[in-house]
Amino acid sequence: MIRLVMADDHPMVREGIRSMLKRHADLEVVAEACNGTQAIEAVAKTRPDLLLLDLRMPDMNGPEVTRKVLASYPKTKVLILTTYDSDHDILPAIEAGANGYLLKDVEPHVLAQAIRDTVAGSTVLNPTAAEAVSKALRPATRPALSEQETRVLREAAKGMTNRQIAEHLYISEATVKTYFSRIFAKLEVSDRTAAVAEAIETLGLKSEQ
């Protein structure tokens, strides 16, 4: 039997989830809470296998509740069930230690299985949450400038104008402008000064002024 505490500030949501979970003999709601403080108290009193937690509640948000619960009761799993799916909402919850993140439009049988999987030790994420976590864990890639783009940027670091760069590299001024457009796009900047500063910081380009 999996024992769980359900925390949500909307009575109708709690009633709906409770009714759904009653159909599963292996899932039992042992306590309910309408805010973060009550959720922590309920976990302390019942020591459930899982806390099914809303993300936003009146007195304390989901990540804060998650941190406090796991700090005192690390064996309790936390599964976030919410309507919010932005990176700004997802990542703080996962960083706080939540074991899963699902949206409230999830199918009932999927939620029931997610509870089982979370208690069993799996990390359960809906596709949006999985992508947010993947992006957060993905190492930042350094912009790859071509050899000629690097030359142009190095000349710019010396304080040369577009015309001077063109003459020095034996290319047209229009070509220099094209290179700068590519450089700005790769470095995600909008002007020469920012491009040089970014290249010095992230690419190891040395200013020779």
From TrEMBL:
Membrane-spanning parts: none
Gene3D superfamilies: 3.40.50.2300
Alphabetical keyword list: DNA-binding, Phosphoprotein
Entry-linked InterPro entries: CheY-like_superfamily, NreC/VraR/RcsB-like_REC, Sig_transdc_resp-reg_C-effctor, Sig_transdc_resp-reg_receiver, Tscrpt_reg_LuxR_C, WalR-like
GO biological process, one term: regulation of DNA-templated transcription
Domain of life, per lineage: Bacteria
Domain Response regulatory positions: 3-119
Record GO terms (molecular function): DNA binding
4-aspartylphosphate modifications at: D54
Domain HTH luxR-type: 138-203
Pfam families found in the cross-reference section: GerE (PF00196), Response_reg (PF00072)
Name this polypeptide is given: Response regulator transcription factor
Lineage: Bacteria, Bacillati, Actinomycetota, Actinomycetes, Bifidobacteriales
